[in-house]
Amino acid sequence: MQEDQLSRLACDRCYRRKARCDKVLPACSTCIHAGTACCYNARGGLGRGDIPEALGRRLRQLENKNRLLSKQLREAQNVARAAGESASGEDLDAAAEMMEIPDESHDGADKSESENDNEVAKEVYSLSLHAGRPRQYLGSASGAILANLFPLGGRPRRIAGDSNNNDDEDEDYFRRFATAGVQRYSSPEMAKSVLPAEPLARSLLAAYLSHDHLAFPYLHPKKLINNLTSMYAEEKYYESHPVEAFALDMIFAIATVQVHRFSWQSLPDAETYHERAISKLGVVLESGGLVALQTIMLLCQYRLLSVSYSTSASLWHLLGMATRLGIELGLHREAVYRLPVGLSPADEEHVKQELGIKRRCFWSLFQMDRIVSNTLGRPVSINLLEIDTEHPEVEEDRDASWGPSPSLEDLLQYPHWPANTRIFNHITWHRIITGKILSNLHNVPKSRMPDPQTCLAIKQQLAEELDQWRAGVALLPLVDVSATKGKDKSNYRTREWYNLLYHNCILMLHRPIHSLQDIPQTSEILTQIYYSSQQSISSYAELHKARKINYAWVTLHAVFLVGLSYVYALRTHFRNRRRQMEGPVDGLPPPPQALLTPEPSISQIVSDMRACSTVLVAISERWNTGRGCHEIFARLSDAVLTDASEYFMGTKIQSMSSSNQEGGQDRHPLAGEQVSQQALWPIGSNDFDHSYQDYFGGFPELFGDHFDDNILLQQPFGWNFES
Predict the structure, then answer these.
(1) Is residue 89 part of a domain?
(2) pTM over 0.85
(3) Which residues lie below 8 Å from residue 3, measured CB to CB, with a gap of 6+?
(4) Are residues 368 and 455 in the same domain?
(5) Do 605 and 644 contact (CB within 8 A), yes or no?
(6) pLDDT digits (tens, 9 = 90+) for 472-529
(7) CA–CA separation, 209 vs 205, rounded Å?
(8) Which DSSP state fits 439?
(9) Would 181 be classed as within a structural domain?
(10) What residues make up the domain containing 506?
(11) Same domain, 598 and 663
(12) Number of folded domains in the chain?
């Protein structure tokens, strides 16, 4: 039955490349022609969600107990044979025969341990994917309130026969694989994938060191290079060193995700390396300590980038495990990093390097925690007030031998730590600021929310710190994106990336917390929102043009929120312009309204909207459920352009009418001049503006219509943009 279901699904390689697959088992013709492993993974309706979770957990417990009893029985057999107790041995052999347990002490034990390793991996995935669904809670920092701009209560529910239902079932909530505990349908030969060619492995490691390692340097580059050399120099190194093999496989997977932006047709799928690494996960986690922490962080880093594992909820729970393990190791305390006394110079240098890796490991974990917490709007796992760990020390760049575009040999000979440390510390400073915004503004309960004056003071203080951070960017070894057409493909070395970080933080400062009333209706704030969103869109477009953008779900979320902020600023501006044109209400002059200065032109609006839509299309095409965001944004763009064109047409007609009156021409006005302001803006001042309501039909698919139990997202907060 399962084989019939799988025959209707494409293999992983064809699925990722969006290529036609003949779905032949055990390998499709496309993979056979390419000479790559063909792996079918259960998706959609084949997930373990169809089995009651309690029954599945009980079944796993019984399987583990059965393996334990089998192992104890084999140990008893060995003891009995060694003691010469033949009678007992015969009884035990008979019992083993009845239980159909192979009488192989060493091979059977190894097989049992291998099965246990797979069970550990399945349990980790089960916890990460099922313990917390993404529909449980989304805070204000996630943009859920900003996305809920207009009421959707009257929107009809999706019909069961809708054409998009198949895509939604295949990839529910940005998740390609429905569960982690599904059965893998691949032959043993596919599971034992050969190592990549040494030139390819060296290129992938160099790509990792030149990009991903800049932001998360929790692995020592020299050790990685030495491990790679040993893996190809020694015949059994890969099998006898599971920790090093796991790290290299995960690095190959992470680097392949990034390198796919440039030569995706000629490289193996990242899932190939990832699946091979997961087969060793149980053994690696048994090492405990810093090795176990780095192992979980590699999984988290891969999920930050991977298309297959793009659910933020699973990453949230994996990071929870990692942060608690890091705190258990005491990495948040400076006392852990003190050098012991009485060491020899050689030992002191070695211990110093190990402590430096621990320090970088902690701050890398801190960054991951802030990224995911900011995306979901949830409380952070590492409290800044409980940390006294210093940042990594930036040493003098004594051995710098290459510039911003190093060659492969340069990277593998000298990873350029000092310059990388400057970049890493500056990125960490930015994550600290975003964490402060999250903790001081967005994660504060409404009952304990400070008064508006205090909130304004907090925002001003955070904005000043953000300006200091921006001033420090000038001290980093960066280059313009247009000047990095060489071998350096990392966006962490471009000024555009730091520019968008700054403006995204500004938008986060002004993002609504409990309702739109949290945004002060002043021209200065509205212009700041418009300018920052415009600058972020421009930076994202430049990075996409240079192929330096991170094609990840975190980036998709950030770009979409930037686009919503841009729409909000324009929507508010033209709404207030309309109120000004309507004139006094009940003989009273209208109150001061927030307006954009200078006023944007239609051509500028079209250019910005097109740039944002292009980036959304480029990123969202990697997920079925993510494709709707650029369609929603396109409809929002149409609504904004309609408002803008109506406003400019109204001002033009008003100008023509006033000029005719000043000229004293005694004639009937043109038909166009007879259009009143009420006709130009047919929505009354006390009515709801439903002109945007129809453009938000896809928000439940993106953010979920699961906010009924969240008081922050209830209707009384004025999200319907009363006009």
Answers:
(1) no
(2) no
(3) 25, 185
(4) no
(5) yes
(6) 999 888 877 766 555 567 889 899 999 999 999 999 998 877 666 666 778 999 999 9
(7) 6
(8) I
(9) no
(10) 431-717
(11) yes
(12) 3
